[in-house]
Amino acid sequence: MNHTPKSSWSSWWGRVCERNYRAATPRLVREMEQRSPQVYSEILQDLETPLEPAFEREVARHLDQGGYRAFVPADTLMPAMLQRFGLDEASVAAHVSYPSLRGNCNACPVAGYCWRAMRRDADVDECRAFCPNAAAFDRQVAYSS
Length: 145
Fold this sequence. Notes:
9 helices; about 0% strand; 2 domains; single chain; mainly alpha; elongated
């Protein structure tokens, strides 16, 4: 007969479930990428829909490690980043440096961090701290003024 109070059992069970979920999340992300690439792509491109925090962290970690080669940061993250800097994508796209800016964005070593920052609507000061294109965006803002 179990003499453990229900609240203690619930707490214990909750901890077990949480540990199992945390341990399985990296595999879940990898398997989603491999077995449901369209769904995974939609998750990466959607910067608005809330995700479970542990899953979101793992997706970001996966991106920072070079995961999901079909993800093009310049297509999803750069437009959001330009908005943070107060720039219009069309005017930046017309600039001679645009291909280089896209290349920097696509080669970014912190694309996962950026993805999470864009999802939580990080401000421009935070973005300046990690974006490889920040100085160029600031020059564009100064030039536009």
